[in-house]
Amino acid sequence: MLSLTLKSGPGASSRGARQLASHYRPHLPKPTTTYLTSSAAFSRRHQRRLSTFANQDQLPRLPVPSLEATAERYLRSISPINTTPERQKQSEEAVSAFVAPGKGFGHELQTRLEAHDRAEPYSWLEDIWLNKGYLEWREPIFINVSWWAQFVDSPTLGVLAGANRHPAPGQFTEVQLKRASALIQYFTIVSDKLNKEEVPPEYLRKQPLDMNQYRYQFSTTRIAAMPKDHIVHQHPTPARHIIVMARDQVFQVEVLGPRGEVISQVAIQEQLRQVVKQVEALPELDPAVGSLTTTNRDIWAQTRDQLRHQSSASAVHRTNFTAIDSALFAVCLDDQVDPATAVDINRSKDHFFHNFDGRNRWMDKSLQIIVLNNGRAGVNGEHTASDAATPGGIFNAALMMEEKSGGKDLVPSSSGTQSLTPPRHLRWQVEPSTRQAIADARQRALATSSQLGTELAHFNDYGAQWIKQAQFSPDSFLQMALQLAYYRLHRQPCPTYETASIRTFLHGRTETCRSFSPEAAEFVHKFMDPSTPTATKVHLLQRAITAHRSLMLAASEGQGVDRHLLGLRSMIRNPEEQARATLFNDPTYLQSISFILSTSNLSPGTYFYGGFAPGVAEGYGSNYSIGPDGIKLSVSSWKGLSQSTDAGAFKDAILDSLRDIQAVVDQSRSAST
């Protein structure tokens, strides 16, 4: 892998090695799908007739865009970043040399990429993206690749709060076990439906969407290995067990009946009680091997290999890893919870994102359901095998079951109570060097998380309803509010990543929508100029929104910039060829993929908040959900790595921008009536 180096340091600043992957962050893609329990824009009856993967054969392959079209789109995207005519001319010359007919090296790379496309069974992008974006990445997946979701509280159980109700640190609770058992049941119901291919296929309007990522939700684990990681998964999954983490101990816990049937919450809760009894009876805790999943992938790969092959307990360890890797998902029961961080949603999210020092987690699992001892719950997701909109559909389905069940068990309480194997504690015997590696991993995790600032906001002034009444696209409108917020704080160009879904193509995942367009740049400059007339501000906003919608449409149709350029770069074979690839050697190219603002839309956000870390040290990460009457958003920044960014200040700037834009639009509408 060719590497380009940015400012080094922990966390986001070490992501310079991922330049080839376009500084991709675990963005939560805009969900334009009909999730599991919904069938908007298409016939419910038609969806129910079809099995989950029935439409796969109808999906077109992702096209390889033309070299000339990508070059043109790229040059336009960097024009607001190139702040002088000289720099823009330099970039134009680099691109012209790259695509020059008959002699530009870009044509050779395009030919290789087209040959690669013909050789791939599903998509030219699939393995390139998986390898360059994830598996070759050697820095920790902890925070850097993982994403988080914080669920709404149980409508029947609520949360334990207040001086006399919140459990003390070190205490497991019945509310915690009840919430965990319910969520386990709901998730296994979805897994069972996926095994039987009973989850309806999803559509964008009437276009079928690729469902391949649903094969990677359960029994999926990223395995640390050298020189690159790999994914293990099974679909349909025969697993009947999950792993439960409690006080850094790992337990194999059966949660399905002998024929793979869903069982009662009563039976699941009894299994969890046995876990708690076992862990509380331990005279001494085993080493926290799970902490190693938070560290550098090479370190973890080497230690994992030693545990499997070079330890006196290697056979036991191999059995442990098989149980962990094949488990449906992980459930983390957190008892060491500070009441000060567990009740306020703006602070409790940290338990789901990183848990400070990464304790009581197995970060390699695709899904970790985390339940605090006050009953609050969420998920930490490993991003490699799928994008968060897909598990987001599972969350929506599970939490809708929780809401509609009214606290009632969905399976008779007698089901499964007599046939479950008791939980098995997975024991570890480690060398002193491994104990030190665990201590080092925990220290590094705490150092990284302490440099990360995250904020939540719930904007209640208006939502999608008002935006649509003003005749704007809600997503494009929010993107322009983000641009305005960044400009009012920093007064400089803002290369921006917004996730675009390409699931209308076979095995499609995501493309980049470069939201910072020339029209967006003009809008923010003029909006902040007090001399600009109100009508002009609204006109420029509309132009910027129209441009953004065109960019998003092109990206969603496989005609973006970044994935094609990534494919071309992946065809470069040696440093000599790298020198000939003039487009990639232009300094503006590196600047353009250093996405200062990493964004994604997970509307409507009814059941959970979500978020992720910034893509670069001097940047921000922002996930948002636009409901009918309000907007949820999360903001993150590296407070320990950048002197210029501040998640709290950026959150406030976003809220101010939303209010200021509404005021200008309303003033303009009043003047025209």
UniProtKB/TrEMBL annotation:
Please list the residue ranges annotated as the Choline/carnitine acyltransferase domain. 62-654
Domain of life from the UniProt record: Eukaryota
User: Which residue intervals make up region (Disordered)?
Assistant: 1-34
Tell me yes or no: is tRNA processing among this UniProt entry's keywords: no
Molecular function (GO) terms for this protein are: acyltransferase activity
PROSITE patterns attached to this UniProt entry: ACYLTRANSF_C_1, ACYLTRANSF_C_2
Q: Where is the active site?
A: 383 (proton acceptor)
- State a single Pfam family of this protein: Carn_acyltransf
For the keyword Transferase, the answer is yes
Keywords of the record:
Acyltransferase, Transferase
Q: Which InterPro entries match?
A: Carn_acyl_trans, CAT-like_dom_sf, Cho/carn_acyl_trans, Cho/carn_acyl_trans_2
**Family affiliation:** Belongs to the carnitine/choline acetyltransferase family.
Per its UniProt record, what PANTHER family does this chain match?
Answer: CARNITINE O-ACYLTRANSFERASE, CHOLINE_CARNITINE ACYLTRANSFERASE DOMAIN-CONTAINING PROTEIN
Per its record, how is this protein called by name? Answer: Acyltransferase ChoActase/COT/CPT
